[in-house]
């Protein structure tokens, strides 16, 4: 399990406000997987609603039971069975009203105004169209069904949201019944890097040049360097000095030679 350092609820010992530090469980679902789903939500909603939308995504989290109850209170939920776990897609009441308004070319719907039968049917179709996006998260087997919000609140173990940006903000929640196991990759071996190319440079001499002298540089000028003529060259990869050796020419090309016993290594 992965845990992250967080701060708990404020406490007031001795008339001071203190937020105690604590470790909380953190989801192992990669943010890249949530971003893949978010891109699918953007494409689907843009197609279904007939307007270009942009979205952002929250970091996957493991909500506590009380948080799950608040998240799913009155929500519309669709679920699907998967190979590794079950997936849920949910829309809370306020977001459902905004989605219904967008579907019919409006901006906002009053909280006191009940949705019509055709609006509820439209919302169901939008929700069902988003459920296949769970395929990348849980290996969808289907079929897609409507799920009671109370059941989803009990079973969700991992949760993240995809939210539209701009004038109208709508959040679509995605939940999984199982947080994916932490992936531990094999360490890299030297053979894995055998084909990687590194750009090296050889530094033969160095020196300091004042700004005034630099501004007066012109063709034919002579720059005096601090490094003695007999000094060794330094082989660098990026900013790392890898080794020192003797500079010269081999087969008509500039070269640097290193001592066999490695005494010249940096």
Compact summary:
With about 270 residues, this protein is an alpha+beta fold.
Describe this protein with a few key phrases.
266 residues, Chemotaxis protein chec, 2 domains
What does this structure look like?
The chain is 25% helix and 25% strand. It has 266 residues and is α+β, with helices and mostly antiparallel strands. It has two domains: 27-176, CheC-like (Chemotaxis protein chec, 3-Layer(aba) Sandwich); 198-213 and 228-266, no CATH class. Strands 3-7-8-5-4-6 form a six-stranded antiparallel sheet. Strand 11 (240-250) and strand 12 (253-257) form a beta hairpin.
How are the elements arranged and paired?
Elements: E1 2-7, E2 21-26, H1 31-49, E3 55-57, H2 65-71, E4 76-80, E5 87-91, H3 93-103, H4 117-130, H5 135-138, E6 145-147, H6 149-155, E7 158-164, E8 171-176, E9 200-203, H7 211-215, E10 233-237, E11 240-250, E12 253-257
Antiparallel strand pairs: 1-2, 3-7, 4-5, 4-6, 5-8, 7-8, 9-10, 10-11, 11-12
Helix pairs in contact: 2-6, 3-4
Largest beta sheet, briefly? Answer: 6 strands, antiparallel
Strand order of the largest sheet: 3-7-8-5-4-6
Q: For the record, what CATH class of the largest domain applies?
A: Alpha Beta
Number of domains: 2
CA radius of gyration is 31 Å
């Amino acid at each position: 399990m992965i845990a992250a350092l967080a701060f708990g609820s404020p406490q007031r010992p001795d008339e001071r406000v203190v937020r105690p530090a604590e470790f909380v469980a953190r989801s192992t679902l990669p943010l890249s997987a949530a971003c893949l789903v978010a891109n699918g939500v953007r494409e689907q909603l843009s197609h279904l609603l007939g307007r270009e939308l942009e979205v952002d995504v929250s970091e996957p989290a493991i909500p506590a039971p009380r948080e799950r109850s608040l998240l799913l209170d009155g929500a519309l939920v669709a679920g699907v069975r998967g190979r590794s776990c079950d997936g849920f897609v949910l829309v809370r009441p306020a977001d459902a009203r905004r989605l219904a308004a967008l579907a019919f070319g409006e901006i906002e719907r009053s909280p006191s105004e009940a949705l019509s039968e055709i609006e509820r049917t439209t919302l169901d179709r939008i929700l069902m169209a988003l459920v296949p996006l769970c395929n990348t998260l849980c290996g969808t087997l289907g079929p897609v069904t409507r799920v009671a919000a109370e059941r989803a609140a009990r079973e969700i173990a991992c949760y993240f949201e995809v939210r539209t940006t701009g004038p109208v903000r709508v959040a679509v929640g995605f939940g999984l019944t199982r947080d994916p196991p932490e992936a531990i990759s094999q360490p890299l071996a030297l053979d894995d890097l055998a084909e990687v190319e590194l750009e090296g440079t050889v530094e033969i001499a160095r020196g300091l040049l004042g700004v005034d002298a630099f501004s007066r540089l012109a063709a034919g000028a002579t720059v005096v360097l601090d490094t003695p003529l007999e000094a060794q060259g330094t082989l660098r990869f990026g900013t790392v000095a890898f080794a020192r050796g003797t500079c010269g020419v081999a087969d008509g090309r500039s070269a640097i030679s290193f001592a066999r016993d490695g005494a010249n290594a940096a």
